[in-house]
Records
---
Amino acid sequence: MTRSILVFSLTFSAFASLAQAPIKKRSMMPKDIYRLQTVSDPQVSPDGKWVSYGLSTVDTTKDKRNSDLWMVSWDGKESVQLTNSPDGESRARFSPDGKYISFISARQGAAKGQIWLMDRRGGEAKKLTDLKTDLEEYVWSPDGKKIALVLRDPDYADSAKTKVRKPYVLDRYHFKADVKGYLEKGAVHLYSFDVATKKIDTLTTGIYDETSPAWSPDGSQLAFVSNRSDDPDRNENTNLYVMEARKGAPMKQLTTWTGADNNPVWSPDGKYIAYLRSTASGNFIMYDQPVLAVISREGGETTLLSKTLDRPVRNPKWSKDGLSIAIQVQDDRQTYIGHYTFPEGKFAGLTGGNRVFSNLESTPDGNWVALMSDPQTPGELYAIENGNPRRLTRVHDDFLTPLELSTVEGFSSKSKDGTQVSNVLYRPANTPAGKKLPTIFYIHGGPVSQDEFSFDLTRQLLAAGGYAVVAVNYRGSNGRGLDYTKAIYADWGNKEVQDILGAADYVVEKGIADPDRLGIGGWSYGGILTNYTIATDTRFKAAASGAGSSLQLSMYGIDQYTNQYETELGAPWKNTDKWLKLSYPFLKADRIKTPTLFMAGEKDFNVPSAGSEQMFQALRSLGIPTQLIIYPGQNHGITVPSYQKDRVDRYLQWFDKYLNPKNL
């Protein structure tokens, strides 16, 4: 008996010791891409007790992502999976009475996404609509009896009895777009769907798009956005309109700004509409930042609440009492939540810190819900009470538990013309102090975006490969004010390259980077800047240019930016010298000495593969080590999980070949 007790005691102690032993951490690997889930689209129930969200996971068998719907309780103690099908579900919305949850899915082999309705008390979801065309948006009416739909005109050219599609017939100025492909005639319009009878009434028709429908609180009117200029393809103008939510009702134009007015949100009393207005007017407003604006439902003068803030604001949401409007503010590597009192216009920040908030939603009791991410944590849902974030979901705990992530910090560098540039530095975990590292400058796209203090999978994976990774918020990036963003207008590859080289000088001077082992890469405008940089300076020993271009003259008419080109650069036949000047990476390709990997999506209409093909052919002709990777069937964004892993694998293999000390 005594011996048995002793054996049990020793065995229990061994198990207890194992339970207390910390999990051995490892570096992140490209295959971890398959493990990372994505939280999206939070929606608060009418009683404020639950928050629904989408959760995207990778199905490795089908090599695609699949989205299911979940709910988490307001106290964060209970999570409920609502759907679990191979077809995927998205855009969950609570019915106004809170009894139902609607969502979009192409279940049961449907060719088009349909609205499905799920009773929260239990039972299978039921298909609500039988739409024959693409559903772009949908919004419940306040009384729950109707749903406003945004539907695209049917594509009759693709309805042949055979599998051979009829030829595209194109006569629009803007005739192609990434993902959508070639654009024939057709628009998106507003419809009203009766939930009880399933009858659909057409609210708008014609050649113009109508988007972003928002019901007035009493359910009598819809506000929406449209560009009703003579030729909408040739400008960026949009305005706000209102109309009664009935067939045949006239529409009333509220705004007359020649720039962009978007994202209408009614005040709780229905007297005002908050929205986002562009700072600049004109045909193309790439280098711009949205301003929070408010207008009466009757029209008239617009109040610009955030005009003096000089930062981009997003996603306006009225407080429940209608006395303030919350927004997301992009500010120098952060995105925080702030609010303006109305009508006084006093501003105050609600959250701060080196982190990023998005997808802001209000709650019935005056609090907020948002997604929040920081450099060590992918986006999770948080309740925000009196400005204090409280975590609701823990989706990424299993993903993060075995991983040893890089350390992330901000730093400021100075360019040769004295400009101060904000950057983010990733260091591999457990890097010895003072050790000079092979360093990759991974440049963001846009150009009007910014690298922030949020979780960045690509840079974490590069850092896990043993590299310091630098993210440069070059001029053209947002978060630093309008003048900083507009600094590169019609002057591509000049100030941005100065800023990248200034950041390189800094990390070398501080002993962070080994000057003999510098690499550079990026996607989209990051790929374009990679090409500009290696054609300017030979210090980089390896490069990876994704979805980039160099012979800018050849991009006219083969991508989706003709309107920008003619506004910013002028027509090529009128301003040829400017186009040739901006094409210097290709026209001066014989100056490039950097071994460069080029990548592109086969069906990219944003920055077509021709841009990468041209540079690959030039370097191949010049005898510079190079390789071209084309991802089949992919648009500008690479969405197939195995291709996402392949891209990072190739980054690491290419940089290892030329930068890793083992091969020097």
Note: The longest strand covers residues 513-523.
---
Amino acid sequence: MTAAPATATPELHPVLAEVTERVVARSATTRSAYLERIRSAAAQRPAGPGRADLGCANLAHGTAACGPDKLTLTASPARNLAIVTAYNDMLSAHQPFETFPALIKRAARDAGGVAQVAGGVPAMCDGITQGRAGMELSLFSRDVIAMSTAVALSHDMFDAAVLLGVCDKIVPGLVIGALSFGHLPVLLAPAGPMTSGLPNKEKARVRQAFAAGEAGRDELLDAESRSYHGPGTCTFFGTANSNQLLMEVMGLHLPGSSFVNPGTALRDALTAETTRRALAAAGDPSRAMGEIVDEKAVLNGVVALLATGGSTNHTMHLVAMAAAAGVALTWDDFADLSAVVPLLARIYPNGSADVNHFRAAGGLQVLIRELHTAGLLHDDVRTVDGPGLARYTREPFLDGDSLVWHEGPAESLDKSVLRGVADPFAPDGGLRVLHGNLGVSVVKTSAVEPDHRLVEAPAAVFDDQADLLAAFEAGELDGRDLVAVVRHQGPRANGMPELHKLTPALGVLQDRGQRVALVTDGRMSGASGKVPAALHVTPEAARGGPLQKVRDGDPIRLDTLNGTLSLLVDADEFDAREPALPAGPSGPTFGTGRELFAAFRAAVGPADRGASVTL
């Protein structure tokens, strides 16, 4: 089923118009300063290729090992493309990138240009470091990646760039780093999701059975291995796949390229075309990355995230990426848009389908068409495919050896996975911002059943997730309603680790009929599940936030319906309390490289400003 392109631009929804107006006004100084910087950088470049004003010794160093491309780089005006890669072969999502540089170099030569691997960036996996000391490096790796990207591009050899990355901190880090070279055209080339494995509902069942002591380690490992079974991104809708959605809706991917599986002819054709587009854009100031990532593109990303119930991590990553382009985005912008953006997708953990099912149902083409028609997306944006977001309702195909685009489905092909604005899964977005006397926090509501979206219960306070799990295993949390408070998990305290290991245990308690919620200054990401969880509580305990004064038994009300997070304790009594220090080490810790990041912990900003060290 196909449809004609959406040619008419619908009237913008009044809330999106109002939020856009205030973001533009709020960003006036920072955005104009950013644009002045990148336009000045573009004006200072030579008329020919970017390396044209390098000294002979500089150029000799940059071309010494270039083999067949050496003469092209030294004696011709051909454009040179930087490849910045997050390849490693430990992580399924990044393993496919092993073959991308050779493919990109061939495509560049065919287009009359050259491509060089400018540098590599680290890529760590929260799924591996979950519950381990290494998780405390995870969020900070985003800033390391941003700085590594800048180092890679700092050689003044390049006219454009292609970024190879997929997962949690990798894509935001690549984008932040590349925006410091926003005068260059930059495209991202995704690797795509692995094919579907064990159904997500069965995986979740085994995890919870293991947490309850009803399944052994062998059964758990078998289920996990059948879920995560081959090259490509994990297929659930966590931060990695939320990244891909954002890059496409923000116009930094080619249309329809985000969820094409690795190792396919279509994937290779899209990568080659990404190379050609990057080289073709070189020298055109209007196609520079910093011109594309503006206020409207950022807000398009927010809307798409809300409409799909994407990762809560992006309440930090999107804020940080926006700031790198001079755009001042706040959690209140998320909250106001969430009130009017309908939830149109059910992808695990918000449903049983994975991203392959989402793509088959019509995917981003249907999502963008529906949101655009409802006036909930800005069409008047620049993209790497050309002007106008309506171009992204098209889907790529191979016609023999040629890559072509056709209009995607006019409507969802599976309404259990993807719906239209007229018949959404919920009338509002899958993320909420909560305000109250405990601070400001975010909650992913799309996976939480309606009767669990308001919980009022006594606090059970912990300073480490391991302590909560120990209490669960000892039966200390059985038979009572509770709001688990896990504090001293913010960016300044210990790097803000994700707390995924809490989900199965809290899910068991909820399934037993207990009223359960989680409140933490840590993270849970796109894997946030069926238990309501107020995350990223700001200010965090380590910054003197109210969480440091909460005591066991204090009544807490987590109300996602009205957007509040409240401690129901007399204000004078609460103010008179002494703050509780963490039970464990309160200073910088050592081991697994954590001592190297002490300066990051000291310098990091709060979660609602992106939890950034570099911005």
Note: Residues 1-6 have pLDDT under 50 and may be disordered.
---
Amino acid sequence: MRRRGPIPDRDLPGLIHAPLGRDAQIAAALLQEAGVAAKISPTLEALVMSLDDNVAFAVMTEEALRSVDLRPLSAWVEAQPSWSDLPFIILTARGGGPDRNPAAARLSKVLGNVSFIERPFHATTFISAARSAVRGRYRQYEARIRMEELDDGERRLQTALKAGRLGTWELDLKTKVLTTSATCREIFGRGPHDGFTYEDLLRAIHPQDVERVKDIARRAIETGADYAIACRTVWPDGSIHGAEFRAQLQRDRIGQSVRLAGVSADVTERLQAEEQQRHLNEVLEERVTERTRELEEAHGRVLAEVSQRQRAEEQLRQAQKMEAIGQLTGGVAHDFNNLLMAVLGNLELLQRHVAGDDKAMRLINGALQGAQRGASLTQRLLAFARRQDLQVGPVDLGGLVTGMADLLKRSVGSRVAVDVTIPERLPSVLADANQVELALLNLAVNARDAMPNGGTIRVELKEAEQAEEVDGLARGRYVVLSVIDQGLGMDAETLQKAIEPFFSTKEVGKGTGLGLSMIHGLALQLNGRLKLTSAPGQGTTAELWIPVSTAAVPELQQPAAIDSRMGDVGPRRILLVDDDALIAMSAADMLSDLGHEVVEAYSGKEALALMDRGTTFDLLITDYSMPGMTGAELVKAARDRVPGLPILMASGYADLPSGVEIDVARLGKPYTQEQLASMLKKLL
């Protein structure tokens, strides 16, 4: 991947502005003696002109800044990119430190990243401060690279989503209420704001296809099989088109069927081509039949074999096409998860090396959140193909929100305040705690993005009573989780489309358009509702209504702590197999950090050669998708050599290809060091 901002491959200079006395010459001499490049700026204007991304730090004397216009310098500091925080070293007079000198203290507000050294100072102190500034600057360059790599990956994923041209729909089996996206309605010739009910859908299906559509839907509801069908549709203008539906049955917590949810696509060209092919086949068959009658005595059999061969070849081409699509989907998921594995693994280990450096930790945490967002996107895409069951149970929303307060404040940044209001007594709700936490975090980030100039986000909880069923929200008691911002707000048209999948008001690369749609889907699964109210210039209020639970919240048991060094299993020799050197290095670093001895192999053949030479291992960790020999083939060969060897399969695929049955432990990529340690504890 191309790096727009690589780490400089030369020594970065420190700028010096000390116009009075010999301070500038002394500072420059000390830096050069310590091997740090130095450049003297005789005026503040010259220093500002020299500031850029390739400067390590700046040294200035307090008295040089007392009676000059600091606005150009302040403007440069404010205009730094998000990854940059240039270090400044201020030389103050004796007794003039920031705790006793208000003028010096004010420089902290203007310059941001400031270190003060009182004169006279020891040369070692000055050199130590300069070297610390250089190290901090290089960490900023490394963070810049990580952030740019994540931005590139998200832009590619967003482009792929739009290129798919998929519409989404959801049918409530009890009320027959049909919810569709604008793209889905467009497939049926409707406008983005046109109403489109279940009855409208049935009327839009070609009369010759409607019973077949109903039968397949009925079979999917009765058996739970995947719903997949292509049919002809009739648009309001009378033109004939084609649509393909794919969906899965969703059940409630007691196993009853509640809705069908899936995607739709315009397949007009495909159906037209198939219709033309059928017509051509019919014409061809008629001609073959006529010709066969003419040559029946000498030739009926040769023509029949040719016809059968043509049909067999067509079926083979179709099967190969579908297989290629499946391989492409799995390959993209595998490669994307591998990229995230390398990013997350290295960032997680890097955190330990910058402990105590708040700026570096903040940058790393930002990069981690971006990578985790990418992993979440992969899971969201997979959720459209197969639904993942919720872990529903009694949840204390008050405790959940209280526990997330610090995370919310860190996630929205210092320009936005978070105000949390929770009543003393609230009933528990019936929900999936992890999904509610993710929903709250998504709503808070959306609120932050709606306030580019900063502001306050209010998070409130309250109990509400629904007297009668309104808009699909049943009668009963609810706890309402509200996230209120003071941002730009949305007009009526934008508000109507806000929960549609892939709809986003953010620029490309800044959002996926899946956040609100997933929260909306979660609310429906919990028999609740997501309510949005907004107006331009008046901010937005998002309310997540969740039904009250009749059961008490179970008392939480503290899980046993996992040894951060060994995972409670002691040091072991581990054979790590992955054809991607970047992924292998990341995983090996995790295992070594846990205290284990790691031997790396980059193919199944290389791994088996190590075993055949008599090298013994306590555990084999292998990827599935590798050239030459897959992980499944390696597992079989390794088991033939060492029958009792524990094996862990780490794969970027959501599921292994059909027909592959492997009796080994599984760990999906990307994974964290804690997840890896937990799995090692189970296996060893």
Note: Residues 300-353 form the longest helix (54 residues).
---
Amino acid sequence: MFLVLSTTFYTPILVSSKIDIRNYNKHCASVVPESTPNDVPEFTTIPFAAKQGGYFLGGEDIPNHHHPNSSRNHYPSSSRRELFIHTHNVYSTDADDVYKVEASLILKTSDMASYMYNDTSPRGPLSFEVEGFWSGSTGKLCMVGSGSTSSEKGKHHLLPALLKLDGVRDSNNISSLIGGTLESLSTAGDSGYFKPFSLLMIPQNHYEYTEVGKALDHVCTGGVVVPKSLSLSLKLSTPICNVFSRWDTAYKLEYSSGCNSTSSCNPFGEGAGYLPQIMSLKVIQCLEDTQSLRFLIEFPSYADYYRPFTPNTTLVAEASWDVNKNQLCVVGCRIFNAANSLKKSRIEDCSVRLSFRFPAVWSIGHTSDIVGHIWSNKRENDPGYFNTIMFRSYENAGVGIPGSKYEYTVVDKARKSCTEKQPRKSKGKRHPDANSNDMKFNMVVRNSKRRRIGWGSSEPIAVGDQISRRNGFVISSSSGAAYSPVKGETNNSIPLNISYSMSFPLNESTHVEVFSEGIYDAETG
């Protein structure tokens, strides 16, 4: 069999032009006055990381010219919108602490829900080529330039633009944010006109860990105390950046009983409008040598998992590994912002604490390889206080920390039941080894009326006391065999303890996961 593969690379149209000083002075002179740049680019001072990411709101009024058959606008209100600034050159000028900057601003959508359910093509990114001046002392950056979209007939629509950013500094900490706007320089009604975008970025350059740089014993106090022996240590040979950089790891939140009052249970108070059930991490920065990280921690609703970036239900956080407690200690800060504008976002409250740990012992119903809790370091009567929330990674996140063991608690019931109904051993038949991939299987699920309601799957959690890792990138444990052979018998003649996870739909809206323990005899299957 021969496969013929075709790959198409999409390159956004870039519109490049030298800075229009008249245009710059008209719109930017009061922000950062023009200065004469040197001829040679600067490499020691840059406004932010060479590829700085962030988020934006706006763009609903820009026609989706990339897909002429689509009636939707370029950035529908339901899409997740991300920006990237690629800095090309920075020049020092004859004014102290003022630099000329050349860059690309790329705006794109991650509208995954639309792709999956509406069978639509991704909208192409918008790219703006911009130039201007940055003042390191005021943190302001003002740039002019243009971008374009193209129609189905190949006609380009020029989008003259003004980019203004505030908070671009050469020293940043957990409370630092970069806010700004992208405005049209065309007149309303012109083909190149668009309504203003609001922008928000978490600075990556020149960052100082001000919260977890302190003694961690004082940072992560007041939460649930877990004995160190119940959590796995993070060895120096295990890269902490690999452990927490998996973008697809989601965490299920578990509230204390009677948690119906959002004011006392919700980490964002009543303003969130819902009690979050899931949590996800986006790594901003990771330092392997100090085992420190920076996160965006988002708490989306189930209905809007791929929603636009929402500051009011997002934490900016920094974290460091605590060797004395075998846990990641995290300080989280709430983001406050004005309605429908990212530009005015600010950080005022860093009272949220989180801890992540890797359980050393698993058991039925406790089969997540990352668990932890969220709490407030405020007093119970203070505004912003909330009750402690537990969380766990969905299923086995496959983070690859070796050493965890499985502890059986109900297998004796299964062993007693199964020995009474044991099938006879037949010669000539072979059955899968307990550790083989054949122990994972799919199932057709039917209801009591024999009507098929969907597909399910089943896979081992543990064979013997050894955790069954679910992907090929995981470091396997070297602590020995899954069971101990009995003298005078072959290994296959011993029924093994085994733990399973079974997942299937209960109906159209509900998915069920069942955890189980039992025994497996490879001789009888």
Note: Residues 21-201 form one domain.
